[in-house]
Amino acid sequence: MHKRILAALLLLTILIPAAAAAPIPVETQMRGVWVSSVYNLDYPSTATANAATLMAEADAILDNCASLGFNTVFLQVRPSSDALYRSEIFPWSRYLTGAPQGIEPSNGFDPLAYWVSGAHARGLELHAWINPYRITRDGEREWEALNAENPAKKHPEWVIEYNDNYYYDPALDDVRSLVVDGAVEIVESYDVDGIHLDDYFYPGADFDDSASFARYGAGYADIADWRRNNVNLLVAELDEALHRADPDLSFGISPSGIWDNAPANPRGSKTNGYSAYSQSFADGLFWIQNGIVDYICPQIYWNIGSEAADFATLLDWWSEAVRGTDVKLYIGMAAYRSAETDDQTSVWYGADELARQLDRIDSTGKAAGSVQFRYGSVADSAALSALVREHFSGAPETPAPPADTGEQPEVATDPGGLFDIFSLFLYSITH
């Protein structure tokens, strides 16, 4: 008798479709925003050593973040082998206090300490956003102007030139130690809520690290697998060291939105775009499956219905990637695409596309929240500010999940691959 009941129950579990993920209330979601310092996009608006100006701009941004309903700020504190905080390892950033690199803010002011205190006073979390390998963005002129105490200048043997810019070599133990020590320094010196890496790892597949591969690549027939392992080692070492310093810290990464494309990799998504796995050698699936990040925040910067990379398809793919793990999924969203288009025929014109994407995140329960790139894109757009404020601070009751018919909603789509390439270029020079 019991065997027949068990068999019937087993049959029911096979025949009845799995229940949809329960929607996550907006008030408990990650509601994040990236605040960029590179090229003075968000903070500071102009490089200055004046402490009063730096404090006033921080206050204005934090006040607005709280007003818009954000609960987490990802502040870019190391854009290029530098620091927007008092560091014994990296010099003061030129984006903070101007050239030459290394100028200290007036009156002993420490921006990161001020941001952390100000964020917490407003009920916001503050996560320190760092770039691990980038040294320059403006080529030889910037390289020549680097502070003599910059680790890159003190250890040129750690550096590789690529496309007229300079990067730390991810293959080196000393470079991993530099990145880890720099991150731990932040955690030990400031009450940050998290450490965050974005999508910049290897800068390109033609990165000239052949000498390092010859020296350190024993056992790897494929240089791509070796490069991915170098990045994985860094992520694992960061995870261990950061949680040793602060067990409650949130450590996560925001890779490019496509892990890999199914035509090239059967484990990949049904997309055709820039691949983190094969082009920047960032293996987000490895990080998730090995539990060496607390969250993953793929930058899904395409619209719903995009032929190259559909937002809904990628949301589903990443949701499946974290299913059954302790890794949280947040979605990086392209507010900048709406903010920067004047083309009224574009799907990105206005706020409707972001509204559709936020609604899909809410209704399906497939992600634990979102992060907007970037602060200025939202703050400088009346339409985006209104959307975010209403959605996060006064959103109506979350609707029931839509039936999964396998069809996408009928919305305008990107004009094609050339637009995606141009958008990626715009993003790359502002990140």
Main sheet strand line-up: 9-8-7-6-3-2-1-11-10
Biggest sheet architecture: 9 strands, parallel
Radius of gyration: 22 Å
So what's the overall shape? globular
Number of strands: 11
Mean pLDDT: 90
Low-confidence stretches: 1-19, 395-419, 421-427
Structure annotation, total helices = 17
Strand content: 5-15%
Termini separation: 64 Å
Structural class: alpha/beta
Q: What can you tell me about this protein's structure?
A:
This protein has 431 residues and is α/β, with parallel strands linked by helices. Helix content is 41%, strand content 11%. The chain has 17 helices and 11 strands. It has helices at residues 2-15, 51-68, 94-97, 111-121, 139-145, 151-154, 173-189, 210-216, 223-245, 276-280, 284-289, 311-322, 335-339, 352-364, 375-379, 382-394, 417-428, and strands at residues 30-35, 72-78, 125-130, 159-162, 165-168, 194-197, 250-253, 295-296, 328-329, 331-333, 369-372. The strands form 2 sheets. It has a 9-stranded parallel beta sheet with strand order 9-8-7-6-3-2-1-11-10. A hairpin with a 2-residue loop joins strand 4 (159-162) and strand 5. It is globular. Mean pLDDT is 90; it is low at 1-19, 395-419 and 421-427.
